[in-house]
Specification:
Length: 1300
Amino acid sequence: MSGTNAASGAAPCRFAHYFVICGIDTETGLEPDELAGENFEQSPLKRTFKSKVLAHYPENVEWNPFDQDAVNMLCMPKGLSFRTQADSREPQFHSFLITREDGSRTYGFVHTFYEEVTSPQICSAMQTLYQMHQAENPSSATSSSSSSMDSLASSLDEADSPSSSSCRSAACGGYDASRDTLYVSKALCLITPMPFMHACHSFLSQVHRAVMADLPPPLPLESYVHNVLYEVPLPPPGRSLKFHGVYEPIVCQRPGPGELPLADFPLGQTFTLLGVENLVQLFNCTLLEMQILLYSQDYQRLMTVAEGITTLLFPFQWQHVYVPILPASLLHFLDAPVPYLMGLQSKEGTDRSKLELPQEANLCFVDIDNHCIELPEDFPQFPNKPELIQELSEVLLHYGISPVGGAPPTSVPTSTTTTTPHGSVSTRHPGLKSQQALRELEDDGRNGNLGGEQLAVLELLQGNATLERLQALAKRTGVRVEALRGVGGEGEAQGGRTAVEEEELRNAKLNVQLREVFASRFTTMFADYEAFVIQSAPDLESWLTNREQMHNFDKASFLSDQPEPYLPFLSHFIETQMFATFIDNKIMSQWEEKEPLLRVFDGRIDKARLYNVRAPSLRSSNYQRCTILKESAQAIEQRLMKIDHTAIHPHLLDMKIGQGKYEQGFFPKLQSDVLSVGPTNNKWSNRTATAQRRKDRHRQQTEHLTLDNDLKEKYMQEARSLGKNLRQPKLSDLSPAVIAQTNWKFVEGLLKECRMKTKRMLVEKMGREAVELGHGEANITGLEENTLIASLCDLLERIWSHGLQVKQGKSALWSHLLHYQAREEKLEQQQAESPVSNGPERRKSESSIGMPSLRVSVIQDMRHIQSMGEIKTDVGRARAWIRLSLEKKLLSQHLKQLLSRQALTKKLYKRYAFLRCEEEKEQFLFHLLSLNTVDYFCFTSVFTTIMIPYRAVIIPIKKLSNAMTTSNPWVCVSGELGDSGVRQITKNVLEMTFDSAFRPHTHIDAMFKCQNLGKLTTVQLGHDNSGLLAKWLVDCVMVRNEITGHTYKFPCGRWLGKGVDDGSLERVLIGELALPNADEDCVRGCRTPDMQHSPGQTRRVSITSMGGRGYKPTSAQIQEAIGEAVNSICKHFHKPEKERGSLTILLCGEVGLVGALEQFFHNGFKSARLFQKTVFVWDFVEKAVAYMESADQMGDMQETAEPLGLTCVSLCHYVSAINSSPRNIGKDGKFQLLVCLGARDRLLIQWLPLLVECPVLQRMYEESALLRDRTTVNALIDVLQTLHDFPITLEASLVKGIDL
């Protein structure tokens, strides 16, 4: 989020808003800081004490109210720290930011140094504390006296300080008021609306130098503070500005309107600390809105990495909790069940393993000091990652930085600054001073800041502190000073830059080039995003009011337009809050000014289009390198080389003489009256005031036309906080009431997120039906479904980790399940030992007669997951369990069961936890229950390599005589992922069951285990025709996946046996998912209609099946059926590959192409013969082929056209191959096979005319038959012709044993 909006509204464009001093309050004395974690075992010098804001100027700024608690907490996150003369007292620099509730940011830059304690009360209090500590812990007298201030220094700096070890041993680590000098930390802080880090660092270190120097500064410190607060403006966009510190000028620049927003934190240092590979992974986790925890001893490193990673997100912005430095008192925020980006300071010598984090299932842990990151499991990679890493590495190498990371940053100034030795100011080379003076004069003259008199004076006085003080005095008494030749002109002016300026320029160029590489990736990936934005609202008010119900982005169409390799990442990314906010901003730009980042991004896309004219390369997954690296660096170099504006110089203020006396090493008490208000005659403040008046007039005019501002802001906040009720923790107020309110917001946010996610999953799954009901886009891709389910798993993990008493394992949900399992198994054991039964265990009711019931329980599903060796981690097990429960439509029921053990929930969770808020928990379970209305295969489709037990039950027709068989049956089950192979069934494993009317039923039951078959499609059923009772009349085969409980029904209704029906010994049966029985729980029984046909379509029955004998469809019905069957196959191929169902069902199912053609061929067929011997369509085909072969031998076919002759040969060849197959599939099975092969090889429309022309037709068909009507046959050929556009592939189970 750019810091620019911090000073919006009535904010004048001032460089800094506040100057703050934090330190020890001598009046209140030493107060232990309980919030920072008191440790009485430590030496008093190592303990933390409360710091206070000693002064801040001005008292308040209207557009940025001063938040005293937050500033104090972030200036000194670990409180005060003490040292003695024996300790290292290097000053430290760090920065922080405060994010307000509206998302705007204020930046703070802090220079911390040590000041001698002069208060006798503080010294004696420390002495007393030390003596008490020594009496209690005599062994610790020799411990080191370093304090919590060490934590500010990085581990590298600690190791490098040469004085530390020798001095400490000399002093033996104690504190004796008579012998030792006590020092305490003090912080100087500038609070600014924009992150000008280098400029603020330079200003504060110069103020500190002035305090430590032998000679007083040229002017009182008030002059410099007043100057930076009131007389230094923000540089205008695209311009650079120079202002003056105590000793040297300071330059800052601001990007222009078309450039990337300001980012002054050294990105090179971030890359150096982490390495390119780690940084790209961290960037990816940030984009996918995971929980990100940065960990380092050094506050400035935390800030540098946090700011670095968020600036790379352009044009998107982090939308969740953002606390780069988490004060010790706010550690409970790590419990937040929302995405966050936080920085945690590590204590020296603490091991990562000792760090107790509430949840790690979705956590990216970044150990900055050890240059390593721990990533969450299973997330999609950023597109073109290797090429991106390569390009970034080249940019870094160009600036002499290793892309591997882990080396101490050489090219970027580290967070520590060393003080110059005493007297350094006076011993600086005078020549350099005068060169600088002349350059400044030229700049000032050019910018109209100096009159002739001042110019003459400055030429004389630059670099001479004493004369400068005289000049200030002379000016007040009205004396003029003329220029004296020869004074201060010892060096000639040169155009060269100092080493510090060179370093800053180098950093700025590296920053912008690294950021351009990332920005270029987004410009390529989202070049066409605007085409998919749905602009449906007529005005802003109606859009804001209906924001939650509205569909803003056509996700399905956008994804279908993207290169395949990008899809896993993009399908996750377009579900994030940052993307949703980006699209919201785009829609709102119709009615109000464009958000700055969006304006820059849209400008870049327009520019790319001008050059590209929608090049096809935009749609390919080829990596496109950034083309504007050179010009982006040049723009910055030009601004820093040629300064556009110079601010007014610091000058003497109208102060009381004799106050604020200079005392070396002590920061003086500043005169607040001169610092509380700024000058009124400033030309830039006047300019701002005029612009402000113009803005106010414009606002008053538009207020009548638009919304009431408060209402609009309320809507905006609500719209932007969808799914994330709490954007930012409040740093100042830490009362129990506030913490409780914050937790309540978390609970509300989680419930709202659950409602949104389940609604989205339902809407997507319902597809076209939902579109007709007005719920957005149609058809969900398998990829998108997977993304939504992964996001649900993440939400459940966050809910289960909210308010945990003690963390165990990386997955809070799996940990809870294990506790539950242990308790239940213990209870089971006790019940088994006691003779009293505890009632029957609940079982899932049977889906059909003959299928034994399946046990349903949380534990059973856990055991299935625990037996899967492929899953190695707790997080993986929890996700697999969620997927399995969702597929079984038991997720809500299982979780309700888990939470019904209230004693366990109370033991594991604190009172404020989401799972202990009864009303919210009930609503949450209700939202999950709504997912039972749709079918998911999210477990079966993901764990494709696991072994699954299947149960096959063969149910004969109910007459007992027909059910008996002496032959050896076998079965082969096929699914989308493979087949089980032929499974022999033990002879006569006949079981007898009784239905509710005590009628006996028999069935054959077989269990087998094989690799996951996916959704089941066909069953091959057969027997070896042995024994006396070899004929077998089978009603259907039921097959159940014993893990997911999905049961498939494969209807048969035919005989298997020689000399009965069509003589088939094996049949290929086409299955579909069986509906649960009506006596099951009504909600569990709900499901979406079958994907293959609409619920209203009537079932057609095979003509030759047992039930279809008396059924005679009309000609019109037959033709309609063929049209529908062909239409279904066309629709199948028009879907994305991952969404297609089973083609076998469309070809051979009950409403498939084979059945429809069978009806066509049966129309007018003379099938009844003497003694009622049935003649089959296959008999006609065989006779026709026999006629063609004999005609060919007699030479009758010689005169036919060449193609027709070839067609005739192909038909004879196919029929012969089917007949000579080793399989005993029967005559109807052979006809089915011929149709399937003809459709696959695009021969059906060539074979039909041959069969129609054959004289056999007149003998076997009546005059009225459809096959004898030329017009109807030609229409059929036209319909079948449409199948030639599609590559039809047949399942192995259909064509097994056919050699073509």
